[in-house]
Design brief:
The complex is a heterodimer of chains A (109) and B (274).
Chain A (H helix, E strand, L loop, with lengths): L2 H15 L5 E8 L7 H12 L8 E5 L4 E4 L5 E2 L15 E5 L3 E8 L1
Helix pairs in contact in A: 1-2
Chain B lengths: L13 E3 L6 E2 L5 H11 L18 E7 L2 H16 L3 E6 L6 H16 L1 E7 L4 H8 L3 E6 L8 H11 L6 E5 L16 E7 L6 H4 L1 H5 L3 E5 L11 H11 L4 E4 L8 H11 L5
Parallel strand pairs in B: 4-7, 4-8, 5-6, 5-7, 8-9, 9-10
Antiparallel strand pairs in B: 1-2, 1-6
The chains are: A alpha+beta (109), B alpha/beta (274).
Chain lengths: 109, 274
C-alpha cells in the first residue's frame, strides 16, 4: 500500500547523500515483518527513479526471514506469517529479525 | 503514497482551521520550519546530510533506515510536545469505525477538563474539523489529497497552525486506513486503534501490523452488540495473539457506555509539564 512513499523515501535519501553520482544499483533490506511488500517496491522503483540520478539503476532486495524469541518459554522460532505465535501458546514474542527496512548500500558508476 | 490506491507525495497537502485560510503543508515557517531545519542540519543520526565526495565506481555503504527522515521529524515533534506537557495520541482505524464521533463526544463531555485539541486527517473536505469545532474543541484539518496516511512533517505543520495549549491532550485523527498509517511515527506518545463491532471480530488478525503497534484498542459501537453476532471473546483472544500488551476498552460514543474509562485513560497519561 504505502510502498510508493517508502520507495520515494529511498530515492530521496540516496539523492541527498550522493547528489552528483550516477547510481547503478541500490541494495535494500526489507524484512518479512516490516509491513512493506518487496514486490510493490520493485513495481514503484522505476517510476520513482525516473529523471533522478538513480534512473536505470538495478534494485536488489534481500528479504530477511522473521525470527522471534518467546518471552514465556524462551524458545526461538521463525514466525509463520505476520503474527508471531509460539508453539507454547504464548503471543508474547520479541521480534529478533524480520522488521528491517533499510538502505544497505548503493553502487555508483 | 500507495502503489495500490494511487497516492502521491506531499504535493497537494493542505492544512487549515475550519473556515480559515489554507496553509501549504510544506511552507517553511513555524514549528515545521524547526522540524525541517532539524532535518537538514541534523548531526546525531547516521542519515545526516553529508554529501559523499569522490565515489565513482564503487559501492557506498549507507546502512540507514528507509524511514529515517520521518522518524527524525517525529522525534522533533515528540520532544516539542513533551516540553509543552502535551499528551499526543495517534488515533487510527478503518474509515467509519467512529473516530470523529468518539472525539465529538469526548470534546463535549471532557474537552474542557482534558484541554482537548484535535488534528484531523482526511484525504479531502473539512467536514470532520467542522464537527469537532462544533463540539467545542480546537481543531485543524489536514487534507492529504491523494495521501493515504499522515506523516511527521504534516503533523508538524498541523501543530504550527493549531498551536495547542501546554498541558493539553492532542488527538491526531489519522486518515481512515488500517494499513499505511501503522508505519509512520508522528511523534505521538501513544497509539490508539478503534475497531467497531460492525466491522467483525477478525480485524486484529487481518491487520496485525496496525494492532501490534496499539497501546489501547477501543472496541466501539458496543450499543449495537444486541443486533450483531460479534464474538467479543474471539476479538479479545485474537488481539492478545497479535499484541499481548494492548489494553481494550469497550465503548459506545452513542450511548456513552465506557466513555468515562476512556477519559480516565487519557488523563492518567497526560505528562507533567517540564
Amino acid at each position: 500500500m504505502h510502498e510508493l512513499a517508502i520507495t520515494e523515501s529511498v530515492v530521496e535519501a540516496v539523492t541527498q547523500r550522493l547528489p552528483d553520482a550516477r547510481v547503478i544499483c541500490v541494495r535494500l533490506e526489507i524484512g518479512a515483518m516490516s509491513g512493506v511488500v518487496a514486490d510493490s517496491v520493485r513495481f514503484c522503483f522505476d517510476l520513482v527513479t525516473d529523471g533522478t540520478n538513480l534512473e536505470g539503476a538495478r534494485l536488489e532486495i534481500s528479504e530477511p526471514s522473521a525470527r522471534g524469541r518467546c518471552r514465556n518459554c524462551g524458545a526461538e522460532f521463525e514466525p509463520d506469517g505476520p503474527i508471531a505465535l509460539c508453539s507454547c501458546g504464548s503471543a508474547d514474542v520479541a521480534i529478533l529479525a524480520g522488521s528491517e527496512l533499510r538502505i544497505m548500500s548503493v553502487e555508483v558508476a | 503514497m500507495c502503489a495500490t490506491c494511487g497516492c502521491e507525495d506531499g504535493a497537494g497537502v493542505r492544512v487549515q482551521r475550519p473556515g480559515g485560510p489554507v496553509h501549504d503543508a510544506h511552507s517553511p515557517d513555524g514549528l515545521v520550519h524547526d522540524a525541517h531545519d532539524h532535518d537538514s542540519h541534523d548531526h546525531d543520526g547516521p542519515a545526516h546530510q553529508h554529501h559523499d565526495g569522490d565515489v565513482a565506481g564503487r559501492t557506498v555503504m549507507l546502512q540507514q533506515k528507509v524511514l529515517a527522515k520521518n522518524d527524525r521529524l517525529a522525534e522533533v515533534n515528540r520532544a516539542w510536545l513533551l516540553r509543552q506537557g502535551i499528551l499526543a495520541i495517534n488515533l487510527m482505524s478503518s474509515p467509519g469505525a467512529g473516530k470523529t464521533t468518539l472525539l465529538e463526544r469526548t470534546a463535549r463531555e471532557a474537552g474542557a477538563a482534558l484541554g482537548l485539541a484535535v488534528i484531523e486527517g482526511d484525504q479531502e473536505t473539512t467536514l470532520d474539523a467542522g464537527r469537532i469545532e462544533a463540539a467545542g474543541a480546537a481543531v485543524v484539518q489536514i487534507n492529504t489529497g491523494a495521501g493515504c496516511h499522515l506523516d511527521a512533517a504534516m503533523v508538524a505543520q498541523g501543530l504550527r497552525v493549531l498551536d495547542p495549549r501546554p498541558g493539553s491532550v492532542l488527538v491526531v485523527e489519522n486518515v481512515g486506513n488500517l494499513v499505511c498509517p501503522a508505519l509512520f511515527d508522528l511523534g505521538e506518545q501513544a497509539r490508539v486503534v478503534i475497531a467497531s463491532v460492525t466491522e467483525g471480530a477478525d480485524k486484529p488478525v487481518k491487520y496485525p501490523q496496525m494492532f501490534r503497534a496499539a497501546d489501547l484498542v477501543l472496541l466501539s459501537k458496543v450499543d449495537l452488540l444486541p443486533y450483531l453476532d460479534f464474538d467479543a471473546a474471539r476479538f479479545a483472544a485474537d488481539l492478545k495473539g497479535v499484541s499481548p500488551r494492548a489494553e481494550i476498552l469497550a465503548i459506545s460514543a452513542t450511548s456513552g457506555e465506557g466513555m468515562p474509562a476512556w477519559y480516565d485513560w487519557l488523563s492518567q497519561r497526560t505528562p507533567p509539564r517540564s
